[in-house]
Amino acid sequence: MSDFDILNKFDDEKLIDVVKNYKRYGYDDELRDYAIKLLEERGWSVEDLKMFGYLENPNYEEALIQYKAYCRNSLIAVCVLVLSLGMLAPIYLILVFMAYQNVSKFYQALGRKEEAVFSFDLFWHILLFPYQKNKMKEVLKGIR
């Protein structure tokens, strides 16, 4: 039984859900158009669907745009970081070491024996990118 045959058995509410969320379900435009045609046969016009907000899911569309932008921008950021570290790693390490010495001397001047703690925040992005990407993808699936 094809997807088109299954749509014939759906009630109006399920067909509207297919029309509104077809991208979320991974359906193509042809299946969505068929669902719209079935709704038209049942008395719904395209104008009615648009007026009630059933023709599109703007929340999902915006979230999908932001998800794709996040993936693109994160990939570019990681590539730039990796490429620049190859060229600038020695300078970076020297500056980090100098900063560490400054923090240590700062605490020594105050009479405290606290250790300076480094924060390599730039590297967290590389480690957390796959986690954040998967988390965003799961949230996209749940948008209604």
Number of helices: 6
Q: Quaternary arrangement of the chains shown? A: single chain
- The radius of gyration is 27 Å
Number of domains: 2
Structural class: mainly alpha
Unreliable spans: 116-122
Query: What order do the SSEs take from the amino end to the carboxyl end, as H and E?
Result: HHHHHH
Q: Please count the beta strands (DSSP E, at least 2 residues each).
A: 0
User: Sheet bearing the most strands, described?
Assistant: none
Nearest-integer average pLDDT: 79
User: Which word captures the global form?
Assistant: rod-shaped
Distance between the termini: 27 Å
Can you walk through the features of this model?
Helices cover 79% and strands 0% of the residues. With 144 residues, the protein is an all-alpha fold. It folds into 2 domains: 3-51, no CATH class; 58-142. Helix 5 (58-109) packs antiparallel against helix 6. The radius of gyration is 27 Å and the shape is rod-shaped.
Core attributes:
mainly alpha, 144 residues
SSE arrangement:
Layout lengths: L2 H7 L2 H14 L3 H13 L4 H6 L6 H52 L11 H22 L2
Helix pairs in contact: 1-3, 2-3, 5-6
Briefly characterize the structure:
Helix content is 79%, strand content 0%.
